[in-house]
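Need tokens for this chain, all 141 residues.
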Amino acid sequence: MSKSILFLCVANSARSQMAEGLARKMFGDRVPVQSAGSEPSIVNQYAIEVMKELGIDLGTHTSKSVQTIEPQTVGTVITLCAEEVCPVFLGKARRLHWPIPDPASKDPSIPREEMLARFRTARDTIREKLERFAREELTSS
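Here are the structure tokens for all 141 residues:
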């Protein structure tokens, strides 16, 4: 498969970044992987921290706009939005939707341990879905 997987959410700061890191580790060079968002911001520090627990470094990642992605390079778009409106990707790519609640919050009263738990839950959910995707999609092609 020469076409990439694109993970898409709004800010490209947590879910799509974690999905990109997990997929790169899982698929290596076999499948190109990208992530982007409709309103890119910065990579969330909690996402960086919980991915480091798995030996995946998101420290060099940056948030990217979906507008910068070449549609013809994408084979599969996986949207990760749950409660918010997912960005639209214009292209002929196959679309999958994995609704995962956003672990990030602007609420300063949420304790650090609770934030880490929210990010670990999102990370582990994405990992399970990626493992299933790899078994069902990548072994059949």
